[in-house]
Design a protein that fits this description.
By secondary structure, the protein is mainly alpha-helical. The protein is 64% helix and 5% strand. The chain has a two-stranded antiparallel sheet. Strands 2-3 form a two-stranded antiparallel ribbon.
Length: 208
Amino acid sequence: MPSIWHDERREREARGKVVSLLSAVKQSIAKIRENGVTIADEKELKALTPEAVKKQIGEVKQRRLGERFLPPSIRNQEAAAFARLEAVMTREAEDLQETLKSIPFPIVVGEKADETYFDSDAVEEYIEQAANVQVPQIVREYYDELIKICDAWSDFGDWCAANGIKAPSHRVLQMLAPCPHGIIDDTATLTITPEKMYNFAGWILPKS
């Protein structure tokens, strides 16, 4: 048995995770852009933290509401609008940054949110690493010992065929490890005695 095993289940899980992460990034970009914020590349994407959002909105708010001839009614409306924008954008930035923590490969930001994608070579490398599992030495040795049993059972079948008697089957195993309901459980021990063999002989010998 090889020391590295490619686990297809893990590969499917890794591919599914990539699809889910890409979908989350696309959704974040779309929602952020809906609020008038531009994102041109991965650098700007990663820089859009909740702290950065609050700082930038605060700076724009201060400049706008600090205008000398801004009517009170407009000032109040815009103050409320800035508060709503900060709440929405902070939440979106938090979700985005949480998603980015799970993405170990480059992100290519598209002009449209749906055109965003991950670097394909990096994705395949990530999936390969996720799917390749180190098989412990003791498991490989266990496998080697089981192979001996399988080979011996196969040789036993060949011997039976050569001598014209019934090939080994589950019935033979049940004779060697008698258990309730004919099901071999985890505590079963294979044993054979002359008495067992005498009582079982009528099943394996060809009928005359």
